[in-house]
Amino acid sequence: MITDLWTYSFLRYAFIAALVIGFTAPLIGSFIVVRRMSLIADALSHMTLAGISFSLFLGQYIALFADLNPLYMGTLISVLAALGLNWLRGKYVHFQELSIPIMMSAGMGLSAIFISLSRGFSVDLSTLLFGSISAVSQSDITLIVSVAVLTFLVIFIFYKQLLFLSFDEEQAKVSGLPSTMLHMLFMFIVALVIAVSMRIVGTLLVSSLITLPVAAALRFTSSFKHTILWSIIFGEVATIGGLVLAYDLDVAPGGVIVLIAVGILAAVMALEKVMSFKKKEVQHE
After folding, report:
1. What pLDDT, in 10s, does the model give residues 95-116?
2. Where are the alpha helices (H) located in the chain, listed in sequence order?
3. CA torsion 140→142→145→148, rounded to 10°?
């Protein structure tokens, strides 16, 4: 793949996208996991699929949407869905987890309708579900990099506030922190990251890239900053390694990326078990 990287522009785009997504997905995922909101990624990814399929459907009848990158509509719908999730959480104060299956069901239903109404999309459905190396365009790169920069700036500027809100939401509200505004901002960023990650990982697997590197990092890190650092390292290994293997094996990159992330988690847990066993042996001696 390394030699072909300088020959084919789509490979360069895919490599840049994987590099950036491998950074942003675990970064935002660290906050998602500690807030116990992991399934929100699934809900928003399904709504993003609805937006993409809607854009492709409109492209068959309206010239403006025929030339429009469907990821733009997917990103817009994902952001609106994030706002909808926040509204539903307010409506079901004591059953906030209900907002996730409600939004996920809506996304799947809308996707099924727009896909069935179409006379055939310009892209294969498997590309939307499991990602694709060749699907990443130059306009996608612009959007992905822009979202990454925005995500980094938000995390950098509001790191302490988001950290406080993530670990103790009730205390954050009592202390006078603008929790509603911060939560909306956080959900907005989450929606953007999920939407742009779909090009490489796909709808069905994007939540795995957000949570699995964090799950591996949590097994041995002692501070939140270290968790973020190792999550990003694991995310980069999974995305870049998965992209290279997917190209060599000629398969969808999403599945390979997720399997590498699962392998990293399994390796970390196995190493943790070995270290625990050795520690017990030393104590017995």
Report:
1. 777 888 898 899 989 988 888 8
2. 2-5, 9-34, 40-58, 63-66, 70-91, 99-117, 125-130, 138-157, 159-167, 169-174, 179-201, 206-218, 224-249, 253-284
3. -80
CA-based nearest residue to 137, from 127, 151, 126:
127
The CA distance from 46 to 73, in Å, is 13
Handedness of CA 164, 38, 97, 106 (dihedral sign): positive
**Residue 4 in tokens:** 């072909």
Structure token pair of residue 37: 């909101």
Look up residue 28 and give its two tokens: 């935002």
Q: What is the pLDDT of residues 213-239, one digit of tens each?
A: 999 999 988 899 999 999 999 999 999
Evaluate if residue 134 carries a pLDDT over 80: no
pTM higher than 0.70: yes
DSSP letters of 219-255?
TT-SSHHHHHHHHHHHHHHHHHHHHHHHHHHTS-HHH
